[in-house]
TrEMBL record:
NCBIfam families: miaB-methiolase (TIGR01574), MiaB/RimO family radical SAM methylthiotransferase (TIGR00089). [4Fe-4S] cluster 2 binds at C162, C166, C169. Catalyzes the methylthiolation of N6-(dimethylallyl)adenosine (i(6)A), leading to the formation of 2-methylthio-N6-(dimethylallyl)adenosine (ms(2)i(6)A) at position 37 in tRNAs that read codons beginning with uridine. Residues 11-125 form the MTTase N-terminal domain. Its cofactor is [4Fe-4S] cluster. It comes from uncultured Sphingopyxis sp. [4Fe-4S] cluster 1 binds at C20, C56, C88. It comes from the Bacteria. CDD domains: Radical_SAM. It catalyses: N(6)-dimethylallyladenosine(37) in tRNA + (sulfur carrier)-SH + AH2 + 2 S-adenosyl-L-methionine = 2-methylsulfanyl-N(6)-dimethylallyladenosine(37) in tRNA + (sulfur carrier)-H + 5'-deoxyadenosine + L-methionine + A + S-adenosyl-L-homocysteine + 2 H(+). PROSITE patterns: MTTASE_N, MTTASE_RADICAL, RADICAL_SAM, TRAM. This is tRNA-2-methylthio-N(6)-dimethylallyladenosine synthase. Keywords: 4Fe-4S, Cytoplasm, Iron, Iron-sulfur, Metal-binding, S-adenosyl-L-methionine, Transferase, tRNA processing.
């Protein structure tokens, strides 16, 4: 039922999300909420009456980039749309955004965006509306029910916040403490997504494998229990989850990778560094040895699993010896895909005030060497799939007529010429070529699922 908080239901909106997959999910939920209020998605974001900038604070100079984006919203005639800044930069910068950028009408943190309609209504009355609250009640209960989806894949946030307090990370300050959404709510949302045409769901969380709850019988379960229940849903063909912490890889979750067919053979498990000394300074609470043991056990459970990792280069105090240990870890594990960054100083985090900050030139040099090794491993993994028969879920159109792009079980992008097939179809293919970022394939059969 539409609320009375927004005065003009015929106005248009555009939500622009930056950063992580959880921001993508939040952006989709904000769009659904505004649609439920009568707003209509603008065909061109530049012409929208309302623009929501859903921000990410994980990278350096994130706040300055937001101010640049705000400036670009000024139109040729000098006017601006109603501007709402949401997400983690909003939480970190607070009312300073409204002070520095007078054109901003609404500032709302990631735990309060369910109040966006009311905040916009206040802005329509000429107020500067700021809400950085982290309410005890869950925002998810205030959001509209999930309805039809236009894509075959969807994100589902199951857990938010973080209690790990890595010394470089702002998440505990912008997203708050770890909370797990109730089991029943997640099953209901997943069923609504599947009813709307979704065939693959990716479960999201800052520490997604820290999720816990009680099932319908009141039994305590972890993420593996949730996955097992979701796997029973007819029409849901694939399940993924991200992002995980090594210390939360339970016996049950590891076993699930070998026991649940719908759980895809892909694990993103950030390690960040290969030096125990640096890991301790990061407050990562795992060691190189414990990380390697987890990887070994996961591969025992699912031998064909693809392993992905995160790496931070140039953390304060990192020596060349520490960096060499990270390179050795990469060689020992053999990552199939990865994400790597130079250390980014985040104000307010313990690492920002640490001594022995590494010079930028040194960080850039190390990053280039590290990425060269990671790229070599990824190319090798992709080339090893040439000739392999696999199954794709077609997700979007390719660059050429009749070409569609889908994801392999190992999260590789694969393009295939498939005239007559449609987005959402699942097809059997054989991989014929491998590049650094995508694969080519040919259809094995006409039948689709």
């Amino acid at each position: 039922m539409k609320s009375d908080s927004l005065p003009n239901p015929q106005k248009t909106f555009h939500v622009k999300s930056f950063g992580c997959q959880m921001n993508v999910y939040d952006g989709e939920r904000m769009a659904e909420m505004l649609g439920a209020e009568g707003y209509v998605a603008a065909a061109d974001g530049a012409d929208a009456d309302l623009v929501v900038l859903n921000t990410c604070h994980i990278r350096e100079k994130a706040a300055e980039k937001v101010y640049s984006d705000i400036g670009r919203l000024k139109r040729a005639d000098g006017s601006t749309p109603t501007i709402a800044v949401a997400g983690c930069v909003a939480q970190a910068e607070g009312a300073e955004i409204a002070r520095r950028a007078p054109s901003v009408d609404v500032v709302v943190g990631p735990q309060a965006y369910h109040r966006l309609p009311g905040l916009i209504a206040r802005a329509e009355r000429g107020e500067k509306a700021v809400d950085l609250d982290m309410p005890l009640e869950s925002k998810f209960g205030a959001l509209p029910k999930r309805s039809g989806n236009q894509r075959p894949t969807a994100f589902l946030t199951v857990q938010e916040g973080c209690d790990k307090f890595c010394t470089y990370c702002v998440v505990p300050y912008t997203r708050g403490a770890e909370i797990s959404r109730p089991f029943a709510d997640l099953i209901a949302e997943a069923r609504a997504l599947v009813a709307g045409g979704v065939r693959e769901i990716t479960l999201l969380g800052q520490n997604v494998n820290a999720w816990d709850g009680e099932d319908e019988q009141g039994r305590a379960i972890g993420l593996d229990g949730l996955i097992r229940e979701l796997a029973k849903e007819d029409g849901l063909e694939r399940i993924r989850y991200t992002t995980s912490h090594p210390n939360d890889m339970t016996d049950g979750l590891i076993a699930a990778h070998g026991e649940i067919e719908k759980l895809m053979p892909f694990l993103h498990l950030p390690v960040q560094a290969g030096s125990d000394r640096i890991l301790a300074a990061m407050n990562r609470s795992h060691s190189v040895d414990s990380y390697l043991r987890v990887i070994e056990r996961v591969r025992e459970a699912r031998p064909d699993i693809a392993i992905s990792g995160d790496f931070i280069v140039g953390f304060p105090g990192e020596t060349e010896e520490d960096f060499d240990k990270t390179m050795k870890l990469i060689e020992d594990v053999g990552f199939d895909t990865s994400f790597s960054f130079i250390y980014s100083r985040r104000p307010g985090t313990p690492a920002a005030s640490m001594e022995d900050q590494v010079e930028e030139a040194v960080m850039n040099d190390r990053l280039q060497r590290l990425q060269a090794l990671l790229n070599e491993q990824q190319q090798g993994f992709n080339e090893a799939t040439v000739g392999r028969a696999t199954r794709l879920l077609l997700e979007r159109k390719g660059k050429h007529d009749g070409q569609l792009i889908g994801k392999s079980p190992w999260l590789q992008s694969v393009h295939v010429t498939a005239p007559g097939l449609a987005i959402g179809d699942m097809v059997d293919v054989r991989v014929t070529s491998a590049g650094p970022n995508s694969l080519g394939a040919e259809l094995l059969m006409e039948a689709v699922a």
